[in-house]
Amino acid sequence: MKIPETDSIQALADYWDHHDLTDHEEDLEEVEARVFVRGGAHDLRVTLTPNEQAELRRRAQERGVDEATLIGEWVREKLAS
User: Which residue has the higher pLDDT, 58 or 23?
Assistant: First the structure.
């Protein structure tokens, strides 16, 4: 049995509605390397006033990035100094 090669989300959804991973056990192989590594990026919550959020959004748009990216850049700049 082979997983359909398609870009159609609907076709894949239909396939997995009637199959599961055990249908492909012969294709699975054990790997030694870690697949999921913990300790990457961490989410933080930052509370801003509406005016601060608007200014942050404006500055991020000027630079062509989203707010989280801009905040991350600012924090890294501050920590490096």
Answer: 58
Contact in structure between 66 and 73 (CB atoms under 8 Å):
no
Three-state DSSP class for residue 65:
coil
Cα torsion at 54, 55, 60, 63 (round to 10°)? 140
With a CB cutoff of 8 Å and minimum separation 6, the contacts of 35 are none
Contacts of range 3-7, beta carbons closer than 8 Å, 24 or more positions apart: none
Instruction: Mark residue 75 as left, alpha or beta (left: phi above 0; alpha: psi -120 to 50; beta: remaining).
Output: alpha
40 and 19 in contact (C-beta within 8 Å)?
A: no
Structure tokens at 14: 């239909």
Contact residues for 77 (Cβ-Cβ < 8 A; gap 6+)? none
Q: What is the pTM of this model?
A: 0.50
CA dist 11 and 5 (Å) reads 9
